[in-house]
Structure formats: C-alpha cells, structure tokens
Design brief:
The structure is a single chain. This protein is mainly alpha-helical and 428 residues long. It has 2 domains: 270 residues, no CATH class; 146 residues, no CATH class. It is built from 19 helices and 2 strands. Helix 3 runs parallel beside helix 13, helix 6 packs across helix 7 and helix 11 packs across helix 13.
Length: 428
C-alpha cells in the first residue's frame, strides 16, 4: 500500500505543481475570484427581489421597489462578461510581474471586448438606432471575455517587456507617463481585435463574440452539462488533497470555465421569475463541501461527540467551528487525512454519494435548483443552503450531514480505537 501511495504521489505532485504554476490557469482562477463581490452582490439583490414571503412581496409591489432591486441584478449578473474581460487582463499582468500596468491592461481589455461584441440595430419610432444589447454581456459572453482578457494580457505584457512604449520626459507626472506608455499596446490590441472582428464578419457573417459562443462555448456546454465531468473534477480535487496538494487550486479554474455560466443563467432566470434550467452549477459545490473537501463535517461531528481518545476529542473541539464554515485544514493536517489509508475510503466516496443523491433529488424536483451563480466560501452551513436554494435546501443539507456522519462513523471508530490504544500504551 505504501509503495502504491508513493508512486501516486510521485505522479500527482509534479502534475499539480505544473498545473498550479501555469500562468494561464492562475490567471483564470484569479480573474474569477476577483469577480466574487459582483456575483454575491447580484445574488443578494436577486434574493431580495424574489423572496417568496407574501407581505414582503406586497410591500415591494406597493412601494415600487422591485424594479430598483432588479437594476442591481441587471448590472451585475447580466453584464458579468464585462467584469471578466477586465479582471482577466488585470490578473494576467499581475501574474506577469507587471502590477503597475494591470489596471490599464484591464481597461484596454474592456475596449477589446466591446470591439468583438455584436451590436443590434433597432427602430425606435422613425429612427434606426444601433445599440449594445445585453445578450452577449452576460453568460453568453463569458467565454469570449475570458479569451479577450487572456489575449489582451499577453499582447500588453509582450509589448511592455520589450519596452516598445512611448517614453515621456522626466518631470511628467507618473500617471500621465503611464497613460502614454499604454498607447502603443492599446493601439496594437485595438488593431488586432478590429481585424478579428472584420475577418469573422466577412467570412462567417457574424462577429467573433457570436462565433465563439456558437462554435466553441456551445460544445463546451456539453461538458458542463455532464454529471460525470462534475463528479470527476470533484474527485480529482479530493485526490490531490489526499496527497497534501491543494486540490482546489488545481481544479477550480476548470470548474469555473465549465460550470459558472450555467450558474449565471440560473441566477438570471431566478431574478426574472423564470424556471431555472440547470442542476450542475458552481452553486452545487456547496453540497459537496460540507465541512470542506471530502465532506468532513461528518468526521468532525464524530470526533466531537464520540471520541474515546483524547487526541480526537481535542481535535473535534478545535475543528468544529471552522468545519461549519467549510474550513477543514485542522482535520486534513491534524488527524491527518493526508495519506491516511483508513480514512481514504469515506474521503473519496462520501462526496460522490452526496453528489449523486443531491443530483437525483434535484432532478425529480424534491428540492429546488441552485439559484445563485456560486456560493460564498466561508458561509456557515445551513445559511449557505438557504441562500442557495431556500428552505428545501436547508432540510436537504441536514439530511446530508446526518448521512455523512453515518458514513464516516465506522471508519472513524477504527481510527479512534487505534489512537486510544496508543494513548493507553503510553500511559502505562
């Protein structure tokens, strides 16, 4: 067993280092994390608008507050691609060691994104008006915004590193000098995306943004709609953690790319009072992280209530509060769960079982679908499920926590018995 683990660690550790050090994946992860405030703000105002309490809804209708709440959702969730275009280029420059240029790169990335975004022609009265519709500013534009940000960041960093910039004389304020240094990369980036838009319009009859969505993003959606993909990525995160490697940092960029768009579509539909179309979203991870990776809340509850050994009694007391907020490093390193052959079975199986059960009850309509694009990390258990789904989510999370306790219990008893015997031996 030890030889097998050593071999797996020898394969996984270099792979995780390679993935974790990849600049593109680090950029993607950082860019999506920067958007968390926008996602959460949009989600909170969607909840405030759609909270199904009749006196509250009557109040919103009577005071005409609901449209005001909808404005916030409109300019958070419905234009998320704009924020992503900025944050991706910004994060790229940060990771390239050019933080002083990151804001300007983000602004130029916004320009590039608007260049490739399709315009709409509408008739208002007797006037023909060209306008920027919301269609490709939200979930449909996420993938093209990501590509725009990455390419903008690459071009901008390349030009800056080769010092192809306009240099101002000494004495010019730094902010003014920095603005002029952005002119050449900005001009090149504008020319590149103008050429891309012109080429795709001439050859395909649609803009680059539309082409990306129909040709690339739509097939990619087949992976995002796959429960096997979702299950595999969650298993991969647990596998890396089992060998002491932060699995979230490895798989999170892929999870974001594949499943955030579905969550945004759910949140948009919820804000509009429409049926939500997707089960598999980033929000669903809240039911797979009960206590943290491996659904370790059940293990911690076992330690807290059923430990015979002083070691695990103490660890249970220390870990219970962090575990409620999905922070399980005390358990991962304190038990430890890393390279622990006894606890490996529930560590891998419990999240998979909880995922399959949750998918099933959502699929048959027993509980609601995730109405937020993603949950906020660190939100306490039960509160996160209420925000994500509502009362049915709270009830289901309680059921899952109870199941998790039962599934971890026999394995924990073995672990606890060994620790107890060891303590008794030392006492003698």
């Amino acid at each position: 067993m030890e030889q097998v683990m050593n071999r797996m660690e020898g394969v996984l550790a270099p792979l995780a280092i390679k993935i974790g050090s990849n600049k593109l994946l680090k950029t993607v992860s950082s860019a999506f994390n920067m958007m968390m405030p926008i996602i959460i703000i949009g989600a909170m105002f969607s909840l405030l608008s759609m909270l199904q309490i009749k006196p509250y809804q009557d109040f919103l209708t009577a005071t005409n507050i609901r449209p005001l709440l909808g404005i916030v959702s409109r300019f958070t969730t419905d234009v998320m691609a704009i924020y992503l275009a900025f944050s991706t280029a910004y994060a790229y420059l940060q990771n390239e060691g050019l933080p002083q240029d990151s804001i300007l790169a983000g602004i130029i990335s916004l320009m590039a994104f608007f260049i490739i975004t399709p315009l709409s022609n509408v008739t208002i009265g007797e006037n023909n008006v060209t306008m920027l519709a919301f269609t490709y500013l939200g979930s449909r534009g996420l993938f093209s915004a990501l590509l725009v940000g990455l390419l903008t960041g690459f071009i901008y960093a390349f030009i800056i590193k080769h010092n192809w910039v306009i240099k101002m004389p000494e004495g010019v304020p730094p902010s003014v000098a920095k603005s002029f240094s952005a002119l050449i990369p900005g001009f090149v980036i504008a020319a590149v995306f103008m050429t891309i838009t012109g080429f795709f319009t001439a050859v395909t009859g649609i803009t680059f943004g539309e082409w990306i969505y129909t040709i690339i993003a739509t097939p990619l959606g087949s992976f995002s709609g796959s429960m096997y993909t979702f299950l595999f990525l969650n298993f991969l995160g647990s596998l890396f953690w089992f060998f002491g490697i932060h699995g979230g940092q490895v798989v999170m960029p892929f999870m974001m790319i594949l499943f955030l768009q579905a969550g945004v579509e759910n949140q948009t539909a919820f804000a509009a009072g429409m049926a939500m179309p997707h089960i598999l979203t980033m929000g669903l991870t809240s039911f797979l992280m009960l206590g943290g990776i491996g659904n370790t809340i059940g293990l911690v509850i076992n330690m807290f209530f059923f430990s015979k050994s002083e070691r695990y009694k103490t660890l249970g007391k220390l870990a219970i509060l962090p575990s409620i907020c999905a922070i399980n490093e005390p358990v991962m390193f304190g038990m430890p769960l890393i390279l622990n052959p006894i606890m490996a079975i529930p560590f891998f199986l419990v999240p998979a079982i909880n995922f399959l059960l949750t998918y099933f009850v959502m699929n048959i309509g027993l509980i609601g679908l995730p109405r937020l694009a993603r949950g906020a990390f660190g939100t306490p258990l039960l509160l996160d499920s209420w925000l994500l789904i509502g009362v049915s989510g709270v009830i289901w999370q309680i059921v899952l926590i109870a199941l998790t306790v039962l599934m971890y219990l026999p394995f924990f008893k073995v672990q606890d018995r060994l620790a107890y015997k060891e303590e008794q031996g030392e006492a003698k």
